[in-house]
Design a protein that fits this description.
mainly beta; seven-stranded mixed beta sheet; LRR_5
Length: 500
């Protein structure tokens, strides 16, 4: 089957300078021959290996061998780990061989190795990070040494299988599904850009969270007619080539919308024999039978007059969604239902709805009883009668560069403004409380100003890691509290923050 794949059996000469400091590793890396070696923090006599980016690469060699031992100048280096992102964009290797003795491969270790076709894992491998072969579209062959006590590649399935529970830990476009396989693990096919069509056999019982995330070229999913299958959260997240989905008559359970960030998905068809789910009238939403919960929508979905609840993540990442009309029948809208809908510019609620409103044409969904915004938009005008902003309400929205939270807002809940990358400066009134992670991941937020006499943050001691709203705000430079400007780095609160 793979006889046309040319693999040259020569050791790839590769050296990269280790410019990234990996969490939990010591920083005193050394260049040894072809590689950069970093001592393990828990055992300095063992090393993590990565590429030396300053080396001249021999593009004539197409095999990369990861050694478990290197001798240099009378010293022997024992290597047990491949560093996260350690061998990124090795675009001309076709075969990867990992030596006996290597125990761990870090996340995204071989990201972007676009011509990689074959991988061999040793019997010593016991731990694999996430998305190891992200964006390796030509990968077709995965083999695990038969002596490995943790993993196997049974029946030449071209996957790494967890032997203990018969779960695929790592797959590729060439993976098959032996009958002994019962589940597909979290992120197993993450970034598998060579996968175009996927057929799930009836013996697969569980597909975990993000199992097929960022399979950008995936166009077709075929499920078994008589299967029993449970889907995790965001199973097909970011599969942007997927335009339609057919749900047959088997027994299927969706924890949440499996199609988050599938921005081109536009239609659902469901077998009339399916006892649990149906498509809406326009065939562009997936709805549960009995309780009328909208589990998954599209950019062109019309929320029908029979929908009682919009489930968490139902429209998450629908970048092409521009308009939402909430009918009178909707009784509950879960947090995160519309997060990441960056082009949403028109929101309205039927005036007869007893639970939600869009008062004063605010382009928000407001929970009427609590006066809390549960969903906003990039053009929202926050009414004075609103007193709080709910979880994920503006998540991923295009916020203005300078955002002054209105004085009437008393509380901003967790992740309310997560990933609002347009935000540059934030001004917080005296009466406003920001909950933990409320501005998580606002990558271009550079300054925060607390107005004098803020009830919750009066001095720098009041802002601790356990209540920081600004985790992963990597550009944040200063926070002003009661008129005192303090460099953000002094707080030590910001995972992912980089001092400039």
């Amino acid at each position: 089957m793979y006889s046309n794949i040319f693999i040259q059996r020569s050791v790839f000469s590769l050296i990269l300078f280790c410019v990234v400091s990996f969490a939990g590793y010591a920083d005193d890396g050394v260049i040894v021959g072809q590689f950069c070696l970093t001592p393990c923090s828990d055992n300095p006599s063992e090393y993590i290996i990565s590429m030396n980016k300053e080396a001249v690469m021999d593009k004539g060699n197409e095999t990369l061998r990861i050694p478990s031992e290197i001798k240099d100048k009378g010293k022997t280096y024992k290597i047990v780990q491949v560093a996260p992102k350690g061998f990124v964009n090795c675009c001309f290797i076709k075969e990867l061989v990992i030596d006996e003795g290597i125990e761990t491969v870090g996340g995204m270790a071989f990201y972007g190795c676009s011509d990689l076709r074959s991988v061999s894992f040793p019997s010593s491998i016991s731990s694999l990070g996430e998305c190891i072969f992200y964006n390796c579209p030509e990968l077709q062959i995965i083999e695990v040494n038969k002596g490995n006590p943790v993993f196997d590649s049974r029946e030449q399935c071209n996957a790494v299988v967890r032997t203990s529970d018969d779960a695929i830990e790592l797959g590729c476009a060439g993976t098959t599904f032996p009958q002994s396989i019962s589940q597909i693990s979290k992120g197993a096919f993450c970034g598998c850009t060579g996968l175009i069509s996927l057929s799930i056999p009836k013996w697969i019982e569980v597909i975990e969270d993000y199992a097929f995330s960022d399979c950008f070229r995936l166009e077709k999913i075929v499920l078994p007619e008589d299967g029993t299958l449970q889907f995790g959260q965001s199973t097909f997240d970011g599969c942007c080539s997927l335009t339609s989905f057919n749900l047959p008559a088997g027994e299927f359970y969706f924890f949440q919308n499996p199609f988050t960030n599938c921005e081109n998905l536009s239609s659902f068809t469901v077998s009339p024999k399916n006892k649990d789910y149906r498509a809406n009238k326009e065939k562009n939403a997936l709805v549960s039978i009995g309780d009328s919960v909208l589990f998954a929508g599209c950019y062109n979905t019309t929320i029908g007059n029979d929908i009682k609840r919009i489930y968490a993540s139902a429209f998450k990442g629908c970048r092409r969604l521009t308009k939402v009309i909430i009918p009178a029948c909707v009784e509950k809208i879960d947090a995160d239902a519309f997060s990441g809908c960056v082009n949403l510019v028109s929101i309205s609620v039927d005036k007869d709805n007893k639970f939600y409103d869009s008062r004063e044409d605010c382009n928000c969904i407001v929970e009427s009883q609590s006066n809390k915004i549960v969903c906003g938009s990039s053009v929202a005008v926050i009414p004075k009668s609103v007193n709080s902003i709910g979880k994920f309400a503006f998540c991923g929205m295009n916020m203005p560069a300078v955002f002054h939270i209105p004085d009437n807002i008393l509380k901003v809940e967790e992740f309310a403004f997560r990933g609002c990358n347009g935000l540059n400066q934030l001004i917080i009134p005296a009466n406003t409380e920001l909950k933990y992670n409320s501005f998580y991941g606002c990558a271009y937020l550079t300054s925060v100003i607390y107005e004098p006499q803020n009830k919750y943050i009066k001095t720098r001691k009041d802002l601790t890691f356990m209540n920081s709203p600004y985790i992963s705000c990597k550009s944040l430079m200063s926070i002003s509290i009661s008129g005192e400007n303090v460099p953000a780095i002094e707080y030590g609160l910001f995972v992912g923050h980089k001092e400039k």
